[in-house]
Every structure is written in C-alpha cells, then in structure tokens.
Amino acid sequence: MKTVHVQTEKAYDVLIGSGLMEQAGECLSRVAAPCRAAIITDDTVDALFGEKVQLSLQNAGFSVCRMHFEQGEKNKNLQTYAQIMTFLAEREITRSDIIVALGGGVVGDTAGFAAATYLRGIRFIQMPTTLLAMVDSSVGGKTAIDLDCGKNLCGAFWQPSLVVCDTDALHTLPEKIYKDGLAESFKHGVLRDEKLFELLENTDARMNINEIVARNVQIKAEYVAQDEHDTGLRQQLNLGHTLGHALEKLSNYAITHGQAVAIGMVYAARIAQKLQLCDAAVPERIAAALRSAGLPTQAAFSAQEIARVALGDKKRRGNTLRMVLPEEIGRCRMQDVPVDALQEVIALGVEA
Ligand SMILES: NC(=O)c1ccc[n+]([C@@H]2O[C@H](COP(=O)([O-])OP(=O)(O)OC[C@H]3O[C@@H](n4cnc5c(N)ncnc54)[C@H](O)[C@@H]3O)[C@@H](O)[C@H]2O)c1
Ligand SMILES: [Zn+2]
Questions:
Q1: Are 2-173 and 177-220+230-350 the same fold in CATH?
Q2: Would you say residue 314 has pLDDT above 60?
Q3: Does the structure show a pLDDT above 80 at 315?
Q4: Cα separation of the two ends of the chain
Q5: In what order do the strands lie in the sheet with 36-42?
Q6: Domain 177-220+230-350 has CATH 1.10.530.10
Q7: 68 lines ligand 1 (CB under 6 A)
Q8: Average of pLDDT values for 260-267?
Q9: CATH architecture for the domain at 2-173
C-alpha cells in the first residue's frame, strides 16, 4: 500500500493499493473510533461494492447505515442532496459520526457537500471507485452539486479525513470512463512530472496502476497544499480545461470531459509552441501519447465557435481569459489572453 500525505489546514492521508475495500474497516479505524458510519453511494457502485464495504466496516466495530441514489451527473443535484440530508437526519447521525462517500466523482462531490453542511459539517472519508475520482476529485476538498443553470454552482471547501483508493475497483470500470481518468493523469504529467508522463506514454497504465495513482495524488496534493482555496497556483490544474469545457458544451457533451481535456491540452501545447514558449516536440509528443492511449486530439469545431463558448465560461476574469500553457513536459505557466485576441490565439491551437 502507498500513502500520500495531504498537508492542508486539516491534514489527511490518501491510501492507495489493491484490496483496500475489504479493509475499509481497518482503514477507517485510523481516523475514527467506532461510531456510526453512513455510506453514501450510487446504485451502480452499491451493487458492485456496497455490501463488501459495509461488512468490513461492521467487522471493525462501526455501526453502518447505507443509502444510494441513481448514478449519473444528472443526479448531482439539489434533490439528491435533500434526499441525503433527510437520510442522515432520520438515522440520527450526529457530529461524532462519519460519512463514507463510496463511488466516482459524482458521489464524492455530492456526499462531500452533504458532509460539509449536515449539522454545519461532519467528518467524511472518500472511497473513490473511478480513475478520475482517484487521481483528481477525491483529493483537494472541493465539494459541490450542480444547479439547473450550471455545474458545481452550490458547494463548499471541505477536506476529507481520509481517502482510500482501492485500485481493484477499476477492474469493473467501463473503458470510456477509465480513459476519462487517464486524460487527467496525462494532465498531471504535463504539468509537473515527466516521469509520470513517460509511464503513461510507454506502458499500459493498468500494469503500474498503483504507482500511477500515487504519483497523480502526490501532484494534486502539492497544488492543494500550496493553494487550498484555489485562488492562485491551483488554477494550473485547469490545463486543457479552458478550451476543453468549451468543446464539451459545443458537442452537447457527446465529447466526454476527459476527451475534451485531451484535445484542450493538445491545443494549449500548439498555442504555446506558436507563441515560442515551447518547442515543436512538446505538442507532438503530447498528441502522440494521448492518441496511443485511445484519446482524441482534435475536434471539428472552429476557433470562432470555441472562442464564443469559452468567453461565456466562468474562468473569464475581466478582459482576459487565463490559459495554462506547457513550456516543457513537466512544466507549465499561466498566461492571461486578452479577450480581443482570444479567437486568434485559439486558432493557433486548432490548426495543426
Ligand atoms: N471535486 C473535484 O475536485 C472534482 C474534480 C474533477 C471532477 N469532479 C466531478 O467529478 C464528476 C465526474 O466523476 P466521474 O467521472 O467519476 O463520474 P461518475 O461518478 O458519474 O462515475 C461514472 C460512472 O461510473 C460508474 N462507476 C463508478 N465506479 C465504478 C466502478 N468501479 N465500476 C463500474 N462502474 C463504476 C458510476 O456509477 C457512473 O455511472 C463530475 O461531476 C465532476 O464535476 C470533481
Ligand atoms: Zn477535469
């Protein structure tokens, strides 16, 4: 088992390894004396792992209740949040009890937000079951639900007490969802870790999954420790996302988040190269690695279309839009692009 320490105001560990769901009880005992544990999950994950995790917690002396909601981003909403709050209140969960968020990013964000607000905040742990949740969403303390008018609009910063990544969970994950998580892993490599990028580039990630997850978590933890509330450096984690979000929207979400991030990263690297911030090998290497991992590197939207949607994006500040641009594999910089020049800059990325 690998352990990564996250040094936020409230510090916590991320445990990474095989078979950790069977040891959920021992893991939880590291941070909580026997109390009541409320497992929140979705229907798909519940059917796969709910029973196993519940049993392990019970064997370690926790008194467990469990609820699930229907899987999917469309349920990361106020109704599900209300359902969870009612469940916790009806079971008389108190401030000395703990929530276990078992699932992908949707469960982590929703149950995390419930933990942040139930009784003005109770402890929770994350047990991520998708690659994206392991390498990205379960670490860092951002919790949220979506409103009809936009994603993640209602949320809180609320750090977990522990994160438990059982990489065996990935065996049942559909290929397309797995690849979405890979795109975020490539992102971390491009941002900060050439060795991670090489591992992803040259080997099947599944063969080194524990090391790959641990390296990703380490990088995320470094950003989070330096900028817990996302007011500066942590914005580098938006590499590939500024244009990626626009592509997702333009495709009406036919392009998944990870696919959009992959394309967004290639565009960002081409922009960087044409602005002479990096040499031509950088975008070529990123595109080749993503392609061989089965991720797309190009979409059929024009710079004009992308610019129009990107300008509606919340990351716009005043008259500039902040982009993250690679200088080499493992090092990036933030660059504010004037709104007037945006379409022109995006065109540098769209054209090979
Ligand atoms: N809080 C953050 O910092 C942060 C960062 C990135 C993304 N997010 C959020 O994460 C969400 C996306 O997360 P996601 O991609 O994990 O999606 P998800 O939670 O919807 O999971 C994707 C699908 O996989 C299923 N699933 C989960 N684990 C499985 C397993 N082991 N085997 C088989 N099926 C499994 C789920 O039931 C679901 O149908 C978005 O809402 C996004 O906003 C949050
Ligand atoms: Zn992302």
A1: no
A2: no
A3: no
A4: 43
A5: 2-6, 12-17, 162-166, 123-128, 98-103, 36-42, 63-69
A6: no
A7: no
A8: 98
A9: 3-Layer(aba) Sandwich (3.40)
169 lines ligand 1 (CB under 6 A): yes
Q: How far apart are CA 343 and CA 91, in angstroms?
A: 54
Task: Say if residue 313's pLDDT is above 80.
Answer: no
Mutate to test the pocket of ligand 1, among 130, 185, 314 (most ligand atoms within 8 A of CB): 130
CB 330 within 8 A of CB 192: yes
pLDDT digits (tens, 9 = 90+) for 123-159: 999 999 999 999 999 999 999 999 999 999 999 999 9
Ligand 1 pocket: which of 20, 74, 109, 135 to mutate (most atoms within 8 A of CB): 109
Question: Is 222's C-beta closer than 6 angstroms to any atom of ligand 1?
Answer: no
* Residue 168: other Cβ atoms inside 10 A: 16
Task: Give me the chain's average pLDDT, please.
Answer: 97
pTM of the model: 0.97
Domain boundaries, the chain: 2-173, 177-220+230-350
